[in-house]
Amino acid sequence: MWFKLWQSIIKELKLLFRDIGGLITLFVMPIILVVVVTSIQDSTYQSISASKIPVLWVDHDQDSISFRVQEELEQSQSFILISELDSKPLTEEVAKKEVFKGNYQMAIVLPKDLTGSLNIKVRQNVDGILDEMGMSTTSYEPVEVPGKEIRMYFDPATQTAFKNGIKNNIDKMVARLESDAVYKTFEEQLGGSRTQSFNNSFISFKEIVPREKNKDVLPNSAQHNVPAWTLFAIFFIMVPLSINIVKEKNQGTYLRLLSSPTSNSILYAGKISTYLIICLLQFYAILIIAEVVFPYMKLPQLDLSATKIVLMSLLTLTAGLAAISLGILLGIIAKTQEQSAPFGATFVVILAAVGGVWIPVFAMSETMQVLSKISPMNWALNGYYDIVLRNGSLIDIIPEMLLLTLFFVVFITFALIYDKKKRSI
Amino acid sequence: MAVMINIQNISKQYKDSDSQSLENVVLQIPQQSVFGLLGPNGAGKTTLISILCGILKPTSGSFEIDGSSSVQNPSEIKNKIGVVPQEYALYPTLTAFENLMYFGSLYNVPKKELKLKITDYLTHLGLSNFMHKKVQTFSGGMKRRVNLIAGILHNPKVLFLDEPTVGVDVQSRATIISYLKELNKKGTTIVYTSHLMAEAEDFCTDIAIIDQGKIFIQGTPKELIQNTPNARKLEEVFIALTGKNLRDVV
């Protein structure tokens, strides 16, 4: 039996390593994918935090509030405010047109008399409160102050997450300006001076991150992307594996295999062992690129300890088994390569999407969140994140490993039963 | 003469078909014979051979090969038979040697013995210089010869050949037939299908003509010719029994 299995593995490895196209699909493409995606995500992060976004700035207020908003936006180091185009002062109409054409990502329009209206409104409110308390120092007739709105225009192609981030920041800034105005008016009315406690936030935020060897472990884009896209590559093994099985059926070698006294289980064990080796090789190839090549490309390193690599290898084995079982099932069901290759590729993309490789699961709709829980790619991704980002141990990834192994057992059993049934037609 | 293959009432109906591909086939194939199973396209030859090789399951009926029952000992049968399919059932990117090592290993041939046998057979069939060349670079005749070797590495008692000489040059055909005769002399029973009537007439010791899933006639080539009025060769017997209508199968 061992000689048969060994010869099967040798045969499969030779078939794979003599197929240049297959090798490119299995090794080169995943490496390119990981490098490209990590570079893009890393530069996106840097562009938001380091480089500046041009924003069209239309200021109809021209008073203290607009000056402070302008000052704060410029001080944030995230924006360059543009108030003139072709040496002409920007109007709301021009700004709107430019943004909707996609020439700029956003425009901010401050309404006329924003400062004046805010001051009047605040003063009226403060006076009202002081009057109720019998502490009013001035008296004047309240007037109707219409509400003011800061208009924002976004390029329709701008992503919602980015849009929401900007809107939240501006909203926060305006709220602070309003509260500052309220404090200032109180102080003026009461004749006091500004206290330090009003200027500084009493409640602050601190992000607590996992620690390893008394050091904070701060996740970077490589730690997010390398596991996700490695997994994508591992599941992509479905495509060459299913093609391999379909080819055997069409070449006639399948008939020879069926008529031999070797059981189907041994024949498929040869394939499973070979493709499992390939999965591990893919994983280590991507890991080496992430550890060695990324720093030369000014990308963050994965920075993994030996223990983490061992844990990730174990998880990769079970993820590989799950992917292989799908590949074998597809190869058995498909009649032609034209059926198996596009189906396999599309299915992996769907699995990746549902599994949370592209969009985090928590950001999905409720239905999709439920679906993601039955996706093997999600189990494996969670396991990888447990190791890389959550500093987890073997115990933390055992549930995912069990689920992936169970998935393999169910699908490979189904595939073998289906194969046997098919022959009795 | 002793019976090597005893087929008892084998019928086969495919799930998506209205008619039976094989209908109560009863056949005895003598030991050490070269048995020709002849018939037009769609007659049921490949279905019958596929059943005897364990690739397909019959709808009903059973068979015995060298005393092993298809019902009780199907795996024992697989050890006794060799199969040479009509297709070049080889991996194109592997060398002739690598292909044969793999297929030989499936039949439990020990590694050392297997290596010696492969070298011996390849030399015998004129392929020793191409042993380590990839099969995809071979001509049709060379592939047919490797295909044949893959079926005999484990010294089977019965060798099934589905059109083993189709699409090959005269020299390769002569080499293959001559080698099969040699094997037969050494005791291997050969079951062979072909559309080449002249080749079958010369090569086979026994022939059965099958059509529409039924065995029409069985006997030696000489008997079949003698028993068919106005027939002087096997091809005329075949036409007389199966008619001149085209048998296009989809």
From TrEMBL, chain A:
GO MF annotations in UniProt: ABC-type transporter activity
GO cellular component assignments: plasma membrane
ABC transmembrane type-2 domain mapped to chain residues: 167-422
InterPro entries to which the protein is assigned, alphabetical: ABC-2_transporter_component (IPR051449), ABC2_TM (IPR013525), ABC2_TM_bact-type (IPR047817)
Protein's cellular compartments: Cell membrane
Membrane protein topology class: Multi-pass membrane protein
Main location: membrane
Coiled coil regions, renumbered to chain: none
Keywords (A to Z) from UniProt: Cell membrane, Membrane, Transmembrane, Transmembrane helix, Transport
Residues spanning the membrane: 20-40, 275-297, 309-334, 341-363, 397-418
Family the UniProt entry places it in: Belongs to the ABC-2 integral membrane protein family.
Name this protein carries in UniProt: ABC-2 type transport system permease protein
UniProtKB/TrEMBL annotation, chain B:
Single GO term (MF): ATP hydrolysis activity
Stretches assigned to the ABC transporter domain: 5-237
Entries under Pfam families matching the protein: ABC_tran
Protein origin, superkingdom: Bacteria
Keywords, comma-separated and alphabetical: ATP-binding, Nucleotide-binding
InterPro entries in UniProt: AAA+_ATPase, ABC_transporter-like_ATP-bd, ABC_transporter-like_CS, P-loop_NTPase
Protein name: ABC-2 type transport system ATP-binding protein
